[in-house]
Amino acid sequence: MSERPEQHRDPVDAIIDQWAAVRPDLDTAAMEVFGRVHRLSRAMGDRMERAYARFGISRGEFDVLATLRRSGEPYTLSPRQLSATLMLTTGGMTGRLDKLERAGLLRRSPDPHDRRGLQVTLTDRGLELIDEAVGAGGAVQTEALSAALDAEKAGHLAALLRELLAATEGQGG
Amino acid sequence: MSERPEQHRDPVDAIIDQWAAVRPDLDTAAMEVFGRVHRLSRAMGDRMERAYARFGISRGEFDVLATLRRSGEPYTLSPRQLSATLMLTTGGMTGRLDKLERAGLLRRSPDPHDRRGLQVTLTDRGLELIDEAVGAGGAVQTEALSAALDAEKAGHLAALLRELLAATEGQGG
DNA sequence: CGAAAGTAGCTTAGTGGTAAGCTAGTTTCC
DNA sequence: GGAAACTAGCTTACCACTAAGCTACTTTCG
């Protein structure tokens, strides 16, 4: 059992203690990091899903609109650029664009320079909606973070995560 | 643009710079944390998927076997306990158990104390396979972590993540 | 120029999950 | 003891994704 006082234990500590009891040979240091990363990602993903649902969009649809929004005016990218940025297959992107186009949040138009291609552009309504949704989603994240860590710790955490992410995404992962 | 030298920038820095250019009013501090958590979770998830594929199981199936394994002898839990632990609907659990039972890695038997219920138990082959897979998966995680951070930084990161996770999973999320 | 190779987006089949609803069995409580 | 409420696991319908393959178009290069 970990020596850590009860109020500072989390579900991952419990799992690691279980492993230590049945497989004391295992090195669990990496699990302390990646187990928590996994659970945090899932918990916050669920929260963001709920936050965006108020705007009638899913998290994946939010990501499409947000990518267009932060590309700047004229808020236009190709399906290819979108699926590459969002690490999605072209089939998956077709489905998301279908839904968002039906909802009137973006439109597809022919690429004038390449007749194979399309341009995807935010509509006025799409721009308005994503600007509100980005604000609401950001507020949820900010509140979750500041409830747990002060600004200094949060900055430290971000810096450590940057190092780990750069190394992990860098080397074929 | 961020002042950080190029070799210390990661993909999340680029996204945050884009937001700063088009929406300078946004507070992006929380995105520095949760954006990286999300991407790390996805990147490592893909790697683990590949690691477990060598044993003929998916990540979700690994989680079922691992939960049984770390529960200790006699490696028996109910479908209900498993789906609660893994935050999965009972329908999803039925599917995973079907596949694992067909593969001969676990067996379902009636619960002697409750005729509605079942007991799910690791077979000898399931025990052997999960012990190897846990080792292989742990090695992948350990390698990814130690390639990026020394032990002290890794411990610090784990501690910060513990604080954040405890707060996040604690308050309805 | 014209053939070969490459690229864009869509379609189809298959996968793994959720939500809702079902039956069988158990618990509660008068 | 028996009705009502609850619980366990499965089934069904649906959804979003991937992988593979298609057509249309573009680029490369002899």
Overall tally of structural domains of chain A: 2
Q: The CATH topology of the largest domain in chain A, please?
A: Arc Repressor Mutant, subunit A
CATH top level class name of the largest domain in chain A: Mainly Alpha
Q: In what order do the strands lie side by side in the largest sheet of chain A?
A: 1-3-2
> What is the subunit organization of this protein?
homodimer
- CATH architecture classification name of the largest domain in chain A: Orthogonal Bundle
* Major beta-sheet overview of chain A: 3 strands, antiparallel
**Would you identify the regions of chain A where 5 or more consecutive residues have pLDDT less than 50?**
none
Give the beta-strand count of chain A: 3
Could you tell me the mean pLDDT of chain A? Answer: 94
Shape of chain A: elongated
By CATH's scheme, which homologous superfamily of the largest domain in chain A applies? Answer: Winged helix-like DNA-binding domain superfamily/Winged helix DNA-binding domain
Which chains make the largest contact? Answer: A-B, 69 and 69 residues
Class by SSE composition of chain A: mainly alpha
Distance N to C terminus of chain A: 33 Å
| Number of helical regions of chain A | 7
Please outline what is shown here.
Two copies of one chain form a homodimer. Chain A has 173 residues and is mainly α.
